[in-house]
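Example record for the data management plan.
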Amino acid sequence: MPNIPQRLTELEGLLMNVVWDVGEVTVRDVHRRIRPVRDLAYTTVLTMMGVMERKGLVTHDKRGRANVYRARLSRQAFGAQSARQIVDSYFQGMVKNLVMHFADHGELGEEDIAALERVIEAAKSRPAGDRVAVPVDLDVRE
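Corresponding structural encoding:
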């Protein structure tokens, strides 16, 4: 499997959100669902699904005459992988540097701070080395 990109283009994000929301889709399904948001030609969607498959974002099975596409990674797994790559590439592999960047630039709202406080409290109460499962919305929509 090719290396999956850490970022999606705007169009890839639009198409992947349809794939993630529906699960298994044909090009026709994707085209019909995005048409109210973005008026793309069917052939553009067809081409982009092929591009996304070559990038390792989706895979397909042949069903009758149609290709049925599905994501190689869940939305959450893609978000987690992308976040790890960003932390490793731009923040010396330290999550605290990423959080401090957002805090230093005034990009953390009250809701963000409250969510971080919950995650920190849950992490403090778990045994050393255990991972904490805290519900976090990893929606990658742009």
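Summary line stored alongside the record: The longest helix spans residues 75-90.
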